[in-house]
Amino acid sequence: MKTYSEDEARKMLKEQLQDWAVNDKALHKEFKFSTFIEAFSFMTAIALEAEKMDHHPDWSNSYNKVKISLTTHDKGGITEKDFKLAEFADKCVAS
Ligand SMILES: C[C@H](O)[C@H](O)[C@H]1CNC2=NC(N)=NC(=O)C2=N1
């Protein structure tokens, strides 16, 4: 599986995804909700998808905020799997 350079990743983000940043060889975004329950429901949806993909986010939650970092640890950088999970996360808040 190809590992994308940070510049390649930034270019791909522009074409596909909203408000993600690239640094430290990972995709990053902070999602903000109205309540803790909304934030935690979002995390639950992502957790189930992550388990299916066998690809897991590095993340933190504080009340209504969820910070997500996506990188492919066993490749040491950003791969297609990170873009797929980022797309899924954006889709969860769009619906
Ligand atoms: C053994 C197992 O398949 C690996 O450890 C998987 C699990 N989830 C993972 N998640 C992420 N984000 N990166 C990985 O390299 C990774 N590897």
What is the element layout, followed by pairings?
Elements: H1 6-16, E1 21-23, E2 26-32, H2 36-53, E3 58-62, E4 65-70, H3 80-94
Antiparallel strand pairs: 1-2, 2-4, 3-4
Helix pairs in contact: 2-3
The structure holds ligand H2B.
Residues 54-56, 72-74 line the site of the ligand C[C@H](O)[C@H](O)[C@H]1CNC2=NC(N)=NC(=O)C2=N1.
Keywords: Lyase
Pfam family, one: Pterin_4a
Family: Belongs to the pterin-4-alpha-carbinolamine dehydratase family.
Q: What would your notes on this structure say?
A:
InterPro entries: PCD_sf, Pterin_deHydtase. Belongs to the pterin-4-alpha-carbinolamine dehydratase family. It catalyses: (4aS,6R)-4a-hydroxy-L-erythro-5,6,7,8-tetrahydrobiopterin = (6R)-L-erythro-6,7-dihydrobiopterin + H2O. The protein has 95 residues and is of the alpha+beta class. The relative contact order is 0.24. The protein contains three helices and four strands. The mean pLDDT is 96. Helix 2 (36-53) runs antiparallel to helix 3 (80-94). A four-stranded antiparallel beta sheet has the order 1-2-4-3. It has one domain: Transcriptional coactivator/pterin dehydratase (Gyrase A, domain 2, 2-Layer Sandwich), CATH 3.30.1360. A hairpin with a 2-residue loop joins strand 1 (21-23) and strand 2. Helix content is 46%, strand content 22%. It has helices spanning 6-16, 36-53, 80-94; strands spanning 21-23, 26-32, 58-62, 65-70. It starts with 5 loop residues before the first helix and ends with a helix. The site of the ligand C[C@H](O)[C@H](O)[C@H]1CNC2=NC(N)=NC(=O)C2=N1 has 6 residues, from loops. The ligand C[C@H](O)[C@H](O)[C@H]1CNC2=NC(N)=NC(=O)C2=N1 is lined by residues 54-56, 72-74.
